[in-house]
Amino acid sequence: MLMPKKTKYRKSHKAKRGGKASRMVDVSFGKFGLKSLAAHWVTSRQIEAARRVISRYTKRGGKIWIRIFPDVPVTKKGGEMPMGKGKGSVDYYIAAVKPGMVMFEMDGVTEKIAKEAMSLAAYKLPVKCKFITK
Question: GO CC terms for this protein (predicted)?
Answer without folding.
Answer: ribonucleoprotein complex; ribosome
